[in-house]
Specification:
This protein has helices at about 5-15, 55-60, 90-110, 130-145, 160-165, 180-200, 230-235, 240-245, 275-285, 295-305, 335-345, 405-415, 445-465, 510-515, and strands spanning about 35-40, 65-75, 80-90, 115-120, 150-155, 175-180, 215-220, 250-260, 265-270, 270-275, 310-320, 360-370, 395-400, 425-440, 475-480, 480-485, 490-500. The chain has about 525 residues and is α+β, with helices and mostly antiparallel strands. The longest helix is centred in the first third of the chain and has 21 residues, at about 90-110. It binds adenosine-5'-triphosphate. Adenosine-5'-triphosphate (ATP) binds near residues 123, 180, 187 and 225.
Length: about 525
């Protein structure tokens, strides 16, 4: 029995045509088998409905059965758990099959399948279904695959982050799973990365410091309102699909950006950093939480109408020694060649700054965005930067200069069409390793504090009135959905700092129907 051999096909063809289901031209790699278990035919324990359709004569001739649970691919990157039951005439033969498959699965467990997981559930994420999703859809799969879990239902925001940072006995686990949305994922990243740095004596406050990669993988069971990270790394936000990726022990490295202000660590970002338009949308929507999810559309429309621009200088370190560019037509997919080639070549801080060719762009910007992944989501299937890579050690810096409302609308609409959103005179995009933003008229923090109170009132009035032509001096940074308190920031990409229990988005077979042929009897 070989790992990738069409194991059951040969069993069926050679000896046991009494299968409940024909698998003509269908093979399952052992790496996608979840579990194998005996079926007690005599006692009538039939957890497979198809078993009952077996003619009596056949069950008598082949009374020994076993069931194999495996991953079956459905449409649009969805995975589901399927069972197939095999029948033998001899008990010894059945035992041989079960033992052989179990040996294969044990070998996989030794290599990369998790055996013990720490699970955090946010009961308040998305539609507040986190606990129910875990109990009904995920826990039974983990149990079937003999994965043991310690489950913590969070009691407040940052519970998971703080527990991971200090208390959690991480040595006991093979991975950390969060049940929630992007905010919950961000908590796990902050907890794990901070803990890893502390244990390795790395000072997070130094922007120049090379961070130590986390050894534990992170699984995301989507139960939030947007689930962008899940969508961009799996291709779908489906709890069962994500649980199956955890069980088979997938591993996808991912870059993480560190954000600093004045040599002080602010936050980590793994998807989008946005100043101007996306910062203003988030800041406005936070003030309108009472509106529920409708606030995003409302704030988006309002921010579009206000059309504020912000002056400043963006300096950046272009990633020059790489194969990919932000204008590529190819996409980051499972087994991505660019991530494997460019990622390991990029070492944070490996080149002294004076030898590097930093570029500077000054001007008035409607938006400054840094996309560390495509940021694709159901609303924008190609995302902010469709060719961005998960693990190449770079972020795509998108600068949208001041332009007319009409042109900005054209740019925004292109995110939802096939047209290139970067092919516009007022838009430029650079693939970078690091960047800084300094707003014009930037004052240090103490000066800002003095002026803050007086200005606040007027900037609030301006923000709330789309017709006001007076642009406030500063926007806010939207850091993966959280507002940052400072406009002047310094960002560095840390190549492959974390690993997820995914494999990246799999290429869709050209003809989906042929990939999963209907079962013939
Ligand atoms: N028990 C809790 N009570 C209140 N807030 C919590 C709790 N546990 C976690 N949180 C916070 O809730 C915030 C939102 O959670 P989460 O990301 O799971 O859902 P969401 O915001 O609906 O989804 P998305 O981030 O995908 O839009 C997170 O920032 C997290 O810090």
């Amino acid at each position: 029995v070989h790992r990738d051999l069409p194991l059951f096909l040969s069993l069926m063809n050679d000896q046991h045509r009494s299968l409940t289901r024909s698998l003509i031209s269908h093979s399952v790699s052992v790496s996608e088998i979840l579990a194998v278990r005996e079926l007690d035919v005599d006692g009538g324990t039939k957890d497979d409905g198809r078993w009952q359709k077996m003619p009596q004569k056949l069950t008598e001739a082949y009374p020994y059965a076993f069931t194999v649970s495996y991953v079956e691919r459905a449409r649009q990157h969805r995975w589901q758990c399927s069972d197939v039951t095999f029948h033998c005439s001899e008990g010894a033969l059945r035992q041989q099959w079960i033992q052989t498959i179990r040996e294969q699965l044990t070998a996989l467990s030794m290599a990369d399948r998790p055996k013990h997981l720490l699970v955090y559930i946010n009961p308040h994420g998305g539609k507040q279904q986190g606990e129910c999703i875990y109990e009904q859809k995920v826990a039974p799969l983990f149990a079937c695959a003999s994965i043991s879990t310690d489950v913590i239902v969070t009691e407040h925001a940052n519970h998971a982050r703080d527990h991971l940072k200090t208390e959690a006995e991480l040595k006991k686990y093979d991975g950390v799973v969060c049940v929630g949305g992007d905010g919950m994922f961000s908590e796990i990243v902050h907890g794990l990365v901070s803990r890893t740095q502390r244990e390795n004596g790395v000072d997070q406050n130094s922007p120049e410091e090379k961070l130590v990669p986390c050894s534990l993988r992170i699984g995301i069971i989507p139960a939030g309102s947007t689930d962008c990270i899940c969508y961009a790394t799996v291709g779908i936000n489906d709890p069962v699909t994500s649980a199956l990726h955890v069980i088979v022990g997938d591993s996808q490295p991912m870059d993480v950006c560190s954000v600093h202000h004045n040599n002080t660590f602010l936050r980590y970002s793994s998807s989008l950093l946005g100043y101007g338009f996306y910062g203003d949308v988030l800041a406005d929507s936070e003030r309108k939480r009472w509106m529920g999810p409708a606030r995003y559309n409302f704030s988006g429309f309002k921010t579009f109408l206000t059309h504020h621009h912000y002056e400043g200088a963006v300096s950046f370190l272009p990633a020059t020694d790489i194969l990919g560019t932000p204008r590529d037509k190819t996409r980051c997919r499972a087994g991505c060649f660019i991530c494997q080639h460019d990622g390991p070549n990029l070492c944070f801080c490996s080149i002294p700054e004076y030898e590097m060719g930093w570029g500077v762009v000054r001007g008035k910007f409607l938006a400054i965005n840094a996309a560390s992944m495509s940021c694709a989501c159901p609303r924008s299937p190609k995302g902010l930067s469709p060719a961005a890579h998960l693990a190449d050690g770079t972020t795509d810096l998108i600068l949208v200069r001041k332009c007319s409302r009409f042109n900005f609308l054209r740019h925004l609409l292109r995110h939802t069409s096939k047209d290139d959103q970067f092919d516009m005179t007022f838009v430029e995009v650079h693939r970078v390793r690091r960047f800084r933003f300094t707003p014009r008229h930037w004052q240090n923090d103490s000066e800002l504090d003095l002026r803050e109170n007086g200005k606040q009132l007027f900037s609030q009035i301006c923000r709330d009135h789309p017709a006001c032509s007076c642009s406030p001096a500063y926007s806010s940074w939207n850091c993966d959905g959280e507002i940052l308190p400072h406009a002047a920031i310094e960002v560095g990409v840390h190549c492959q700092l974390i690993k997820l229990f995914t494999r990246g988005i799999e290429e869709q077979p050209l003809f989906e129907d042929l990939a999963n042929p209907p079962c013939a009897l």
